[in-house]
Amino acid sequence: MRESSPMNAGDGAYSYTKNSTVQRDAASGVKDAIKEAIMENFDIEKVLGGLTTFTIADLGCSVGPNTVFAMESLLETVEHKCRQQGLEDREFQLLFNDQIGNDFNTLFAALPQPRSYFAAAVPGSFYGRLFPCSSVHIAYSSFAIHWLSKVPDELQRKGSAAWNAGRIHYSDDSSEAVLEAYADQFQRDMEAFFRARAQEIVPGGVMVIVVPAVPDGAITFSGGVAFRFLESILSDMVKEGVIEQDQVDSFNVPNVYPCVKDLRRVVERNGCFEIVKMEFGEVSIGKVEPENSIMIIRAIFEGCMANHFGAMVVNQLFVRAMQNKLQFAEILNSAGIQGTISQIMVVLKRI
Predict the structure, then answer these.
(1) Cα–Cα distance, 121 to 37 (Å, whole number)
(2) Which position among 212, 263, 289, 300 has the lowest Cβ density within 10 Å, counted as fewest Cβ atoms?
(3) Among 119, 48, 39, 51, CA closest to 80
(4) Residue-by-residue DSSP string for 103-132
(5) CB-based contact 114:180 (threshold 8 Å)
(6) What is the strand order of the sheet 91-98 is part of?
(7) Residues whose CB is less than 8 angstroms from the CB of residue 31 and which lie 6 or more positions away in sequence, other chains included
(8) Selection from 103, 138, 142, 132 nearest residue 117 by Cα
(9) Which residues contact 337 (CB under 8 A, 6 or more apart)?
(10) Calpha distance 80→251 (Å, rounded)
(11) Residue 166 class from Cβ within 10 Å (0-12 exposed, 13-18 middle, 19+ buried)?
(12) How far is the CA of 174 from the CAs of 117, 179, 222, in angstroms?
């Protein structure tokens, strides 16, 4: 199976464009805090060093309006800071990065015309280098770094202590071997991520990260109940002979939901960034109906699952999910998930 997949393309009923309101609301919930941190900690004149072009990059931009809103919000903040520092006649370029298979066509069709900035796509994994040395002034990433570069190897070896039979993710009752496999892969990926960004971001530049997360000491992400729901449907499909048990046992979602301690450790180990702000919080996303929740889950995970199970099986999976939406509503209610999402907001300054 391919390790990960972009979000659903286009602007149809199952697209990420139409089904990413939770991510939008979560990022919007910390927009003012991000603006404040940039205004207080960012010296544009010093960072530009005589250059006239200012560069902002979105890492893991996906497709749809969310990245456009986020990038233009950052641009507005920078323009305000430029006026405050008496810097006129600056040009701005916005760089949109995601996997090679991302639907950049739909993304760029959503950009305003005319616009006050230059825009370009930068395809590739953000776990490696994407930009020239010291060329990015602000890097931004929202709801992206919890995607691993690959499923941990240990989870894919039948008979290993981390063989995650019957499960598609981890939770409080997972074995230590499963938890360690996920944690170790996240650590390796984050080390690669920060190593690359340390080379690309100019001294004094800023990196902003928003990531779904758990409190220190916790394991299971609040939204993880969705994985239990999908597991129950897959189990039924196995019993009916639609798929084989080995297909379920060998599939694992390549996501890790970190805590502040996890991120602080990797930033401090990298040693190239000052932590300006790193906060865990519950952000309001409004009431999301079970049917809408299932559509959001499909927009996010359909590609990843289809790579493993096949498109026809995954379509049937989500048809069954809709048929059981009342059961899903009960699961959400019993888990106490009511209009909020837990996340970490990070603002770092390149030393």
Answers:
(1) 27
(2) 289
(3) 39
(4) -HHHHHHTS-SS-SSEEEEEES-TTS--S-
(5) no
(6) 118-123, 91-98, 53-59, 136-142, 201-212, 340-350, 273-284
(7) 73
(8) 138
(9) 222, 223, 225
(10) 47
(11) exposed
(12) 48, 7, 16
Inter-residue contact 103 to 10 (CB < 8 Å): yes
The whole-number pLDDT of residue 2 equals 45
Is the torsion defined by CA of 130, 131, 132, 137 positive or negative? Answer: negative
CATH code of domain 21-350? 3.40.50.150
Three-state secondary-structure class, residue 227? helix
Q: What is the pTM of this model?
A: 0.96
271 phi, psi to nearest 5 deg: 80, 5
Domain positions in the chain are 21-350
String of b and e for 101-135 (b: at least 16 CB within 10 Å)? ebbbebbeebbeeeeebeeeebeebbbeebbeeeb
Question: Quick one: tokens of 336?
Answer: 């106490």
Q: What is the 3-state secondary structure (H, E, C) of 157-213?
A: CCCCCCCCCCCCCCCCCCCHHHHHHHHHHHHHHHHHHHHHHHHHEEEEEEEEEEEEC
Binning pLDDT at 50, 70 and 90, where does residue 336 land?
Answer: confident
What is the pairing mode between strands 340-350 and 273-284? Answer: antiparallel
pLDDT value, residue 287: 83
Among 72, 61, 70, which Cα is nearest to 106's? 61
| Contact in structure between 157 and 178 (CB atoms under 8 Å) | no
Helix orientation angle between 176-200 and 260-270, rounded to the nearest 10 degrees: 40
Q: Which one-letter amino acid corresponds to residue 324? A: N
Which of 17, 14, 18, 19 lies closest to 319 in space, CA to CA?
14
Position 206 pLDDT exceeds 50: yes
From the centroid of its chain, how far is CA 162? Answer: 25
